């Protein structure tokens, strides 16, 4: 067995087992907090996710030797923002976790991905992303529009700004999807793209319009990803150890005030960004070039934090696995949690929507009652004075 395969197997096992046991032993106990205080629950799950996201980045860069290189603008973690990115392969999201760590100053972020609904039923990672409050869509715009609006309204209600990542292409590049993109271009008299797909602008346009009108949008970050050497295609490549030597991200920040306010101009703006991506990637992949978006790039790594995360999360995973097979209480807890997640995932639209339902049922009613109570004394005072 070659070294690359051994490292790939170790990488996947460490990463995926950490996800599953972190969900069982850290996230699942927080379910009880969900019934007590939704704001605390959201804050706690966000903090845990931010701490955990160091782990896959550490595995990727320390164990597998991948360099994540950033050029362009930094990401302000305090921004309420939309992140748009080209979707080169099925693993872009994985490398983006590390990129957000490097691109955010300070190295922290509150990013929620817009994902296909099927992801939420994947054992471990899908369950964790439900609790993390990610946004799942069903490829039914009438339904998706309502779900996205509910999530955005909830984020505003709990007074927390998030960065919402959406892939406007809708899927990654493959021979099949590229052929469909070419067909769309030919039918509409557009340029054929070789390095990106023509974007589907409906979701992005809605997010931009609604977040801007809802005072949730400070900026749009346009992210372009490129792979100079090894180009993975699917999750199998992780297992086989086919990890890129480098992944380059170029980031451009657009303040919200520069974004058009109406649907048609926003759609046009997104299409123009994709045209610019095609040009940038054509230059990036040009034969016999250095394959960088800019000569001014950085591959800085927060080594101390990464090594700490690598050791701490690995020890946590080993200990909780040991606990599972030596404690009947731990085993029964895992069985109960698994059964609960399966039921919730298959027979509802996810814990993240149940969280919003609880807020709308209890917290909103409390706020309305408090507002009514504070307005009563003033009214009575006016009535007495009138009498």
TrEMBL record:
Keyword tags: Acyltransferase, Membrane, Transferase, Transmembrane, Transmembrane helix
Domain of life per record: Eukaryota
TM annotation in the entry: 12-36, 305-325, 331-351
Cross-referenced Pfam families: Acyltransf_C, Acyltransferase
Domain Phospholipid/glycerol acyltransferase: 81-205
Family per similarity comment: Belongs to the 1-acyl-sn-glycerol-3-phosphate acyltransferase family.
Name of this chain's protein: Phospholipid/glycerol acyltransferase domain-containing protein
Species annotation: Orchesella dallaii
Lineage: Eukaryota, Metazoa, Ecdysozoa, Arthropoda, Hexapoda
